[in-house]
Structures are given as structure tokens and as C-alpha cells.
Design a protein that fits this description.
- The complex is a heterodimer.
- Chain A is an alpha+beta fold.
- Chain A has a single domain, classed as Sortase, Chain: A (Beta Barrel).
- Chain A has two helices and eight strands.
- An eight-stranded mixed beta barrel of chain A has the order 1-2-3-4-7-8-6-5.
- Chain B has a domain of 40 residues.
- Classes of the chains: A alpha+beta, B mainly alpha.
- The interface between A and B is large, with 55 and 32 residues.
């Protein structure tokens, strides 16, 4: 009799554990992804409104995009667009790479360059969970456009190459990627996320170089956001 | 244990079913609102960063502000 009760209770506990795991998957891929994707989309539209609207016909006050002040921790200061991941793929970029910041979109490594500046902008984002923003980062091909939009400019970067590195390789966000200590002359952008999907054994890194910085007043030519050809 | 729970619920079969469903729904709410958000930061795929560069320039000496 006691043996039957024991077996039954163990069975019920295993069943409960299965239901819990199933509910967690529903929460992660359904609930959390939906809520946080919506929050991030709201953050993007809020940023767009806060940036100066492009003034039609009027000559921009300054030809060159002005340098941005360093954002406060957690502050959203830019919008990242990657047409390869979707024509309307846009995520807010905040200052910092802590878990609370990255739950709200992309995060800039503090101390790395600002978008458009000489040096290297380091940005991290989730690949799995939190709406899976960078789930398909492995689709990015050399030559693909990545736009970091700020209050002053559209910074158009082109992907140069990708690499899968060990999780401790901080040199990927060095001012000259993977050459720490070297004085930068070029404008780089390093995007980091986890690899493989749903794992943390390595980091997936995409290195991009600035092609052009278009003052915000001029607007971004639509060709940059066009869906890239299959490759 | 579920049999014991069922016995403790008051009323007939219908009332018991309604109570059981309400209990399950309340459990799901607690899980979604508090338990899962607390658990998820400890999952492996939350690690998407490399360590901040050692000897990183302080914000004041970042490439932005040095006009060279």
C-alpha cells in the first residue's frame, strides 16, 4: 500500500515537472517574447519621435554629424536596423550590457566608441529569449547593411566578416577589433551575441565598418533599408 | 497528492472542477508573473556579451571626444 502511494506520488511529481517545463516554454516563446518585442517596438518609435524630424529642403545646420554625448546608463540613445533580419527589424540601443538593459533591446559596451566615431562601437543583444532579436544573426553576409541611427546621423555600416569566439574574448570590442592596444584610424562596429542558439558555449561576433554617416536632416536613402538579395 | 487535493475541494463534481481550474489558473499567473521572470536570467542563453575590454578608456577619453 505504501509502495503504491510512493509510486503514485513520484509519478505525479514527474508529471508536474513536465507541465512546469512546458509552461516555461510557453512563457519564454509566447508571453515574454510578445511583451518584450512590443516594449522594444515602443522604445524605437519613442526614439524616432525624440530625434529631430528630417527638415525638408532646409540645409542642415552642420554638414558633419556632430559627436554625441555619452549616454547615461540604461538610456536609449540609438536605433539599430539590420535589413537582412527583416525590412522592419529595428531595436533600441541602450547604454550598458547588463541583463536588465539587454532585456529591453540592444546594449552598448560602456567605454567603446559612440556610433559613427573613430574606434569601435561594441553592441550586444540577445539571440534567444527576450523576443529572439538576433536569432538569425548567422544570416548576415559580408556587405550587408547595418544602420545605427542616432539623433544626429544615420551611421551606415557594412558587415565585413563574422567569427565565433570564446566567451572571454574581450578583444573583439577593442578600438581596432581583435588588435587591443592599437590606435584606431577606422570606424568599426562589433555586434556580439551568444552561440550556438539557446547556448552559451561561445559568442557570435559580426564585425562591420562604417561606409557613410548621413546627417539626419538629409534622411536615409531607402536603398540602404531594402531587403538584401538572397545569398 | 492530486487525489488528496480533489477530496479536500468542497462541493460536487462540478464545483470541484471549477475550483481545480481556478487553482491551476492562479498557479499559472504566479509562475508567469513572478517565478519565470526570476528564473530566466540564470539560463545559459542569457550570456551574450564578452567581458568589457580591460583598460577601456574612460568615457571622457573615448574616441568621440578626442578630436584628432
Amino acid at each position: 500500500m505504501t509502495f503504491r502511494i510512493l509510486v503514485r506520488t513520484v509519478g505525479e511529481l514527474l508529471f508536474t515537472a513536465g507541465v512546469l517545463v512546458g509552461l516555461f516554454v510557453v512563457w519564454l516563446l509566447g508571453w515574454q517574447a510578445h511583451v518584450q518585442s512590443a516594449e522594444q517596438a515602443d522604445a524605437v518609435s519613442g526614439l524616432e519621435r525624440s530625434f529631430d524630424p528630417p527638415t525638408r529642403g532646409a540645409a542642415p545646420a552642420s554638414r558633419a554629424p556632430t559627436a554625441l554625448p555619452e549616454p547615461k546608463p540604461g538610456e536609449a540613445f540609438a536605433v539599430l536596423r539590420i535589413p537582412r533580419l527583416g525590412a522592419d527589424w529595428a531595436k533600441p540601443v541602450r547604454e550598458g550590457v547588463g541583463g536588465d538593459v539587454l532585456a529591453q533591446g540592444m546594449g552598448r559596451y560602456p567605454g567603446t566608441a559612440m556610433p559613427g566615431a573613430v574606434g569601435n562601437v561594441g553592441i550586444a543583444g540577445h539571440r534567444s529569449g527576450h523576443g529572439n532579436p538576433l536569432l538569425d544573426i548567422d544570416l548576415i553576409r559580408p556587405g550587408d547593411v547595418l544602420v545605427i541611427e542616432t539623433k544626429s546621423a544615420y551611421n551606415v555600416y557594412r558587415a565585413v566578416r563574422h567569427e565565433i569566439v570564446a566567451p572571454d574574448r574581450s578583444d573583439v570590442v577593442a578600438p581596432v577589433p581583435q588588435r587591443p592596444g592599437v590606435k584606431p584610424t577606422e570606424r568599426w562596429f562589433t555586434l556580439t551575441t551568444c552561440s550556438p542558439r539557446w547556448g552559451n558555449a561561445a559568442r557570435y561576433i559580426v564585425f562591420s565598418r562604417l561606409e557613410t554617416a548621413i546627417p539626419r536632416a538629409q534622411g536615409l536613402p531607402a536603398t540602404y533599408l531594402a531587403a538584401p538579395k538572397e545569398s | 497528492m492530486y487525489a488528496a487535493l480533489w477530496r479536500r475541494l468542497p462541493g460536487g463534481r462540478l464545483a470541484k472542477s471549477v475550483s481545480a481550474l481556478a487553482l491551476f489558473a492562479a498557479t499559472v499567473v504566479v509562475l508567469f508573473a513572478w517565478v519565470f521572470p526570476a528564473v530566466s536570467p540564470h539560463l545559459p542563453f542569457e550570456d551574450v556579451t564578452v567581458p568589457a575590454p580591460t583598460g577601456a578608456p574612460s568615457p571622457t577619453s573615448s574616441p568621440v571626444s578626442t578630436q584628432k
